[in-house]
Amino acid sequence: MVTAASEILHIRRPLRSRRIRGFTMGLLPFSEKDSPTNSNTAFDAEPKRDIPVSSPSDSPTRRTGRGPLVALALLGVLLALAAIGCDADAPQSTFGVHGPVAREQLLLFNVLLWTMVAVFVLVEGALLYAAIRYRRKPGDPLPPQTHGHTPLEIAWTIVPTILILGLGIWSVIVLFKLEPGEAVALARAEGKEPLHVEAIGHQWWWEFRYEDANPDLEGQELITTANEMRIPVDRPVIMTLKSDDVIHSFWIPKLAGKQDVVPTRNNQMWFLAEDVGMYYGQCAEFCGTAHAQMKFRVHALPDVEYRAWVDGWGGELAEPMSAEASAGQLVFLGDGQCVTCHTVGSADIVNEVGDGVQLARMKTFIAYTEWLQKSGDERLADVRAGEEPPTAFAAPNLTDLGARTTIGAGLVDLNRETLRQWLRNPDDIKPGNRMSELAAIYQTRLDHRADLTEDQLSDLVEYLMAQK
Questions:
Q1: Which CATH class for the 182-312 domain?
Q2: Which sequence spans correspond to the domains of the chain?
Q3: Fewest CB within 10 A of the end CB: N or C in the chain?
């Protein structure tokens, strides 16, 4: 009886309702008689709608047939760029090593890299082989389900463990070889003493301080220079790294890896140059506006040339100054006010606790910066009362400027024209530098150029180029 009642209700349902049911239940434009749930119903319904079918030429597969070729081309370009970056002869390539520290680091890198490449190729190769060889085909039954191959699972657990342990132990051994004690042992094995140099990072230049420039002689005077470090070839150099402001990173790719330079902390590293030549270095930690322009150079010299540089540093000039250079000295001491921040003719003094004059200037800079945050009325009152803080700032020592090869922390070659351009407007060479921001002679003109005449600039250039 229930069945008969349901059939009656179904028959009495309006045609429109049944048509709507055909659309809503099937979600396709078929008639009620073609509905899978009512295939035996006898009545005429709306005709089927034609569904447009795209031609084979318009299929996504054909339209994107060149996609794999484009992907392969892009992959080829990336591999070519990677290969160019691995050029050992590039100026700052880590693959062209010229010392034992860089060689140990490169060997460790290569072994780790190619071990990981081999593991990747084996694992991905096995995965691809299994996916292709045992892929399911139409009509294949469901394969038997297992819980794994016990000997195989043990093998692929033990082998990577042994591999990682071996690489880890070797990495620790290499780290011990990078400690300064290794440099001392290496030097004394050759009957020498290592050279100790302090590198102090400033925004945005490097100060190099030699307290014992020639370890084989006694009574050596302090040497302080900037942005260009000179070392003897085949002698270990132990670097003590300091910072007066923010975190920097000391990096000479062809001689040694990176080492952080952290305020309030002294880090150490060592390296040895086996070949005579010039090696590029730079700060490798973002440290502010001109970070990318904080470069330096390391000149590895024969022992005779290095000793000559040490003996000739500071004191009297090698040649008497010309009349123009003498006039430039007056500009340096007077109208230019260069002497406020720069030292010429002697080292920057270091006190009994190891703090140099550049650190004192940095503290002055911090105090002056804090003073600038006061209101205009407060600053005016300080000036009238004579309580305005001094305006000396950390700046490179210029004693051996004429013997250097670059200016602006390694940005451009040093010659009279580039030095003149630098003195006229440092921002033209190194945007963001402290000199044009803080030095008094750049604050009196709207274009921030030096408030000096062309003759004064020429004389100042001659004086600075005479510093050898």
A1: mainly beta
A2: 182-312
A3: N
